[in-house]
Target: Sugar ABC transporter permease
Amino acid sequence: MATQHSRTAARFMMAPAVFLLLVWMLVPLTMTLFFSFKKYLPLRGDSMANGLEWVGFANYVRFVGSSSFWPSIQATLIIVGGVLVVTIVLGVLLAMLLDQPMWGQGIVRILVIAPFFVMPTVSALVWKNMFMDPNNGLLAYLWKAFGGTPVEWLSQAALPSLIMIVSWQWLPFATLILLTAIQSLDSEQLEAAEMDGAPVLARFWFIILPHLSRAITIVILIQTIFLLSIFAEIFVTTGGAFGTKTLTYLIFQRVLESQNVGLGSAGGVYAIILANIVALFLMRIVGKNLDA
Model:
């Protein structure tokens, strides 16, 4: 057991890292809060000395009063929820498939995981030009081959298209976590259930899925943190049009239109509030599996 002296030494050694981490988080947060109450227009040539006019909560009222605010919240939650559903469902199926013995199993696993290492901008460009282009995209040729009219994905089905693109990026991450969890499952349980005559769906529902609950929880928590700040895919594909303007993209757009850093900072505070609400919801509803 650790003694009082060893615990004190451990805290002393960890203190510099904890201090740097707190500074790294608190300084940007403090500056964001500070600028959110100011009218700061550096893009118009205002300097820090004469460009910081106190406006109180005017930036917050102006940002939330925008007609795009609540639709951006809705679009953010739809994209996050859609990607989570797709990656978890397909991730479980892929993980179970990759767990089966097959020829070239190592190569197949590498190919499945590879999309996770592609930059979001690059993957969005690939999907936009090679797959979803209504004239020369692969999906357009498939539609024409079956006698159908090509779909203009990024305008007629913008949100589903974005969910598809982002899911393609995050599916390898979910698959890797779930595959690791499946490989830790005691095979004797499955063999005993099979010998007792339990059907495949029953074995999956009562043995495999409960065993994956903690891994699924981790996937949901980690992906949600990153998906709430999705930006590059929207910037490259739709530019925020056709109902795809998320809260992060709205902040970017408002700063460019008004050239007011204070207004963007107020939007950033709203984004922090939204992230904390979602995190608290997940920790209460889903995070209970971590204590099981």
About this structure: The domain at 61-291 is CATH 1.10.3720.10 (MetI-like fold). The chain has one domain: 61-291.
